[in-house]
């Protein structure tokens, strides 16, 4: 049986790239450790199966050395005490899919005679997070106290998402790659991304994170859209970052969700409760960590108290991963109602091949047909 002469570095690179250890693959590929050292070589069939298992394009294994894969947009994931992690296949494919969706939506809206979206790059208030947060609320039609009127974090996220889409922003909330539930997104790698465009701005929120964290991520990525700064973010929780853009968008999101005047006004009452941060988190529909950081930044608590709370809470804050529930309801988040309707309309009118519609939406055949009727029912049915 013929073997494929593969550079061992490429085998090791593919394993690391897919975030596996050799031991995790040995059940399916008993000789993978030998492939990685060059002591053995795979057959073409084994190499194809290995490429699929590691989500690596099979052609990469015929290169003389591993390719350098970079994100096609700005990478804001660096922190002051750690190097930037190589983007995983899941992150790369998510970014590429969102770019394809944006390209389609831009052309669709221009063909429809759509005017540019005011919210995209609208802010010129450099260095003024408070002003940018006001502009965001105005664009979305929200008051400073909108979240306090909504009973749950889930409902608040849905309301926030719908307001963003009504303002012209495509919003995708997903915890997996497309609709592949076997390829879960890791919130530790990234929590969101923003693609800026005057016609089709897009925000992606990692749905594997807790609902409270997703709300902050959505506000953070909207700040990227407003300031015209696209990129991938990892810690939109006011965590340490070397990027001035991230610090600014964190500040905008914090003021948007937890206005300074409102927090100071409620602090005397909150501080008498057993857990003032959780008390306020329920009101503002953000995480208790965000409340604690806001209290620290506004000098309502000292550094020692903030650090003690942060260290204790950060390990417990994340809830169960997103997903589950009603498949069709999930598509409004994974695909986005605004984008979904546009794809369905274009396919029905013959402006988009159905195969392209399937690939853009991640829904195929009868599944796409049923989704089409849900988001854009035909007249007379």
Protein described:
The chain has 381 residues and is an alpha+beta fold. It has 3 domains: 8-62, 434 Repressor (Amino-terminal Domain); 89-317, no CATH class; 327-375, no CATH class. It contains 16 helices and 6 strands. It has a 4-stranded mixed sheet, with helices on both faces. Strand 4 and strand 5 (202-206) form a beta hairpin. Helix 5 (89-111) packs across helix 14 (327-348). The protein starts with 7 loop residues before the first helix and ends in a 6-residue tail after the last helix. The model is unreliable at 318-323 (pLDDT under 50).
Helix and strand arrangement:
Layout: H1 8-17, H2 22-25, H3 32-37, H4 44-53, H5 89-111, H6 129-140, H7 153-166, E1 170-174, E2 176-177, E3 180-184, E4 192-195, E5 202-206, H8 211-227, E6 231-233, H9 244-257, H10 260-270, H11 276-284, H12 288-297, H13 303-317, H14 327-348, H15 354-361, H16 365-375
Parallel strand pairs: 1-5
Antiparallel strand pairs: 2-3, 4-5, 4-6
